[in-house]
Amino acid sequence: METNVSDKVKTWLGVASIPIMVWTAIPLLWILATSLKSTAALADSTQNILGNFWPKHMTLDNYRLIFTGGASDLFVPALWHSIVVCLVSTVISVILATFCAYAIARLDFPGKGVILTTALAVSFFPVIAMVTPLFNLWRQIGLFDTLPGLIIPYLALTLPLSIWTLSAFFQQIPWEMEQAAQVDGATSWQAFRKVIAPLAAPGVFTTAIIAFFTAWNDFVFSSNLTSENARTVPAALAYFTGASQFEQPTGAICAAAVIVTIPVVILVLLFQRRIVSGLTSGAVKG
Amino acid sequence: MSRIELKNIVKKYGDGFPAVNDVSLDIADGEFVILVGPSGCGKSTLLRMVVGLEDITSGDLLIDGKRVNDLAPRDRHLAMVFQNYALYPHLTVFENIAFPLRLQKGKHSEEEIRRMVHQASGMLELDEHLDRKPSNLSGGQRQRVAMGRAIVREADAFLFDEPLSNLDAKLRGQMRTEIARMQRRLGITTIYVTHDQVEAMTLGDRVAVLKKGILQQVASPRELYEQPVNLFVAGFIGSPPMNFLPARVSGSTLHLPHAEVTITGDLVEKVKGKDVVIVGLRPEHIKDATVETTPEHAVHFTAVVDQTEWLGNEQYAYIPFDADRAVRDKLDELDRELDGEGMHPQLIVNLDARSRVIEGDEADLAFDPALMHVFDPESGDNLTRDDEKAAQIAKDSEAQRRMALERAKKREAAKGGAA
Ligand SMILES: Nc1ncnc2c1ncn2[C@@H]1O[C@H](COP(=O)(O)OP(=O)(O)OP(=O)(O)O)[C@@H](O)[C@H]1O
Ligand SMILES: [Mg+2]
Question: What interhelical angle do A147-172 and A112-124 show, nearest 10?
């Protein structure tokens, strides 16, 4: 996308964006800094520079603690649970949402509006209101503290979101693309696979990332519907304890927070090239 | 190669609105048929029904004698260029053109596909753009890619939906001749939708004029121009459009705003009992009597010229007049149907460039009453249409079409033999 913005305007926009970047980056940097502090430095500001911000002596003790030390029993399984639960629910949700959104965008069938409204209505429910009944139900049918027991609510959380974003995205793809393919000799399925799917890919990736984050960041379901066997990282963090009763596990929590941020960063870096807008430009005239 | 027959085709959309109403059209093998009409008259709808993207509400569509109403688009073997090209943005120009070939699984080897794409791209002068994406092409190049995708496959017929509407005048002229040449050379049945007068008159063997989903007349461009069946066709074909003048009837005399015309023969019978009729006069049929020779029986009249436009090779003069109240409504309605601007009625005269008429002058004008059309103001029917003459024109243009096809085939054969 080319825009006709003069250099002067560009410079000003750049300057204006600096405070915003600082504003968003400082809390993250603080977490990173805290994760690198030793237990002593956490309590004693003289061991830090820049006004308690950065430790004079960096240490990886906190990381050791969560991976191999006392907190590893809690953290490492939780990390696996997080990965498995989020990937599975993202994949299922994106696949289902792709078909659903395609139908909504392309076909005229009775109940189309109902599906969209229902999807929206579901996401209106406060999550916390669903947790208690789910907790009782899951215990009775044996889903409590299992991975599927988390995947199912995560699907309920991510599906409406995915359906909405994807149907908006599908509606942007010109209908005629598909019709042209059919005239060129494609079956409906071929038209979908060879024309619509590649065009929809950026939308699908965007949706997948949003769905993944939603599941990855969830705390309420995970902390209430699991105990040991399926607890994910956000919930597990709450159960961290310090070396003694009087010590806060701040360092370990921050280290874990840094670790769980890494997949998110990787995902974004990996897919940011695919999330390019304007891929359909040049399809139609005008 | 195929013959396309439309029999009483009706299309009603969900809201019950008949977008196409009882259209019958028989398109011969190798014929080039143009669909014209004002915006929203159902041209695209008709084309989309032929190609299979729109269900036919009632009536039959036959391709080579076989009813294809319920066939999927892919089984009709037609190629279409969409009103907005509909190129595949994620594929290169090469892959766009190769797309229909790749879908015919196992029919073409990779080698063959490359050869066929290059043949098409060579003809459309797209060779140096084959590796580029459609988004980086100009409008004209995109249009040619769309064309390439349509011609690369050996389709039974071509369907074009206003393919040149987005190009500038020069490129449009270029592509127009290219399309005409290609159609003759390949001898492929073609249906072509357009808004453009020039395209309609020059490209087609026959032109079908639609109004609000109803077929008005199907004829060669010349017949449409010289022997229109009704007011609508007469007003739609020709640029600048035909002048419509109210005329009071008294016996065998028609009183026009500026002149009086004596009529003879059948026409006297036909206008009998009518108070007013509408007279149609083409701008180029009115001459400046001072510089051009006019036939003996020409009707002379004088009128004050309100405005002139000198274009170098020709000259337009505008002469306002007051329309009779009795036909005023009819003329206004016609103006609306033709997407007109609702201007005050005026006579447009296409004068010889030598004419020295100046604005505000009283001009000495004349026209040949034999070239005049008389329309029934109620039904809009052309009362002066000469069916015999029309049949003769139709016969001539059909013979011309066959000859042109024949010639193109011979030239092609000679080329093939030489190669
Ligand atoms: N999907 C649709 N649903 C309902 N009505 C429609 C639909 N598509 C077209 N129409 C109606 O059918 C009529 C004919 O439309 P069509 O697109 O065939 O016009 P057109 O002759 O191609 O016009 P243009 O020259 O502007 O392209 C119009 O009155 C339009 O409102
Ligand atoms: Mg149209």
Answer: 130
- Domain map of chain B by residue range? 4-226, 241-384
Q: How far is the CA of B300 from the centre of ligand 1 (A)?
A: 46
pLDDT, average across residues B42-70: 94
pLDDT category at A247 given cuts 50, 70, 90 is low
Nearest CA to CA, how far is A43 from chain B (Å)? 57
State whether CATH 3.30.1490.20 applies to domain B241-384.
Answer: no
Q: What is the pLDDT of residues B149-182, one digit of tens each?
A: 998 988 899 999 988 877 778 878 888 888 888 8
pLDDT tens per residue across span B247-274: 999 888 999 988 899 998 888 888 888 8
Q: Closest to B84 (Cβ–Cβ): which among A185, A279, A285?
A: A285
Phi first, then psi: give them for residue B51, nearest 5 degrees: -80, -15
B19 lines ligand 1 (CB under 6 A): yes
**B106 interfacial to chain A (CB closer than 8 Å):** no
On chain B, the residues whose CB falls within 8 A of the CB of A195 are 88
Interface touch A284/B103, C-beta < 8 Å: no
Instruction: Report DSSP letters for B298-354, one per residue.
Output: PEEEEEE--EEEE-SSEEEEEEE-PPPHHHHHHHHHHHHHTT---PPPEEEEEEETT
Distance between Cα B226 and ligand 1 center (Å): 30
pTM as predicted? 0.78
ipTM for this model:
0.78
CB < 8 Å to B166, chain A: 285-286
Domains of chain A in start order, with CATH, are 2-59 (no CATH), 70-283 (1.10.3720.10)
A185 in contact with chain B, both atoms CB, cutoff 8 A: yes
**Sequence-distant (≥ 6) Cβ neighbours of residue B402 within 8 angstroms:** none
| pLDDT score recorded for residue A278 | 42
Identify the CATH number of the domain defined by range B4-226. Answer: 3.40.50.300
Name the closest ligand to CA B38.
Answer: 1
Query: Would you call A181 and B88 a contact, using CB atoms and an 8 Å cutoff?
Result: yes
| DSSP assigned state of B127 | G
Nearest ligand 1 atom to alpha carbon B41: 21
User: Does B3 score more than 90 pLDDT?
Assistant: yes
Continuous segment of H or E residues that includes residue B180? helix B169-186
Question: Hey, what are A157's tokens?
Answer: 């959380």
Residues of A in contact with B135 (CB under 8 A): 281-283
**β-pair partners for B367:** B286, B299
The minimum CA-CA distance between B366 and chain A, rounded to whole Å, is 47
Atom of ligand 1 nearest to the CA of B83: 27
Mean pLDDT of chain B: 89
Structure confidence at residue B34 as a pLDDT band (50, 70, 90): very high
Q: Which residues of B266-293 are buried (b: 16+ CB within 10 A; e: fewer)?
A: ebeebbeebebbbbbbbbbbbbbbeeee
Cβ–ligand 1 distance for B21 under 6 Å, the answer no
